[in-house]
Amino acid sequence: MKVSVDPDQCEANGICVGIAPDVFELDDEDVLHIHSAEVPAERLADVEDAVAQCPKAALRLE
Ligand code: SF4
Predict the structure, then answer these.
(1) pLDDT for 3-61, tens place per residue?
(2) 59 alpha carbon to ligand 1 midpoint, in Å?
(3) Is residue 59 within 8 Å of 4, Cβ to Cβ?
(4) Cα of 62 to ligand 1 centre, how many Å?
(5) Residue of the CA atom closest to atom 6 of ligand 1
(6) CB distance 16 to 46 below 8 Å
(7) Using CA atoms, how far apart are residues 2 and 42, in angstroms rounded to an integer?
(8) What is the pLDDT of residue 21?
(9) 23 lines ligand 1 (CB under 6 A)
(10) Which pLDDT score, from 0 to 100, does residue 53 have?
């Protein structure tokens, strides 16, 4: 599974970072970075949670 972000949708509220800080990171300019697009199996549950809770529906898991 791969996770990606639509930067046009992301409002940098940090919800995904709070759920999975090892996967998502906001930089000093509030740009979201994804550490590893390929989600390790043991992190999938939290990434799915982050995708579901993003209020802007900016994350995609496929
Ligand atoms: S939860 Fe969604 S809107 Fe918030 S920082 Fe993450 S991708 Fe952006």
Answers:
(1) 999 999 999 999 999 999 999 999 999 999 999 889 999 999 999 999 999 999 999 99
(2) 7
(3) yes
(4) 17
(5) 16
(6) no
(7) 13
(8) 97
(9) no
(10) 98
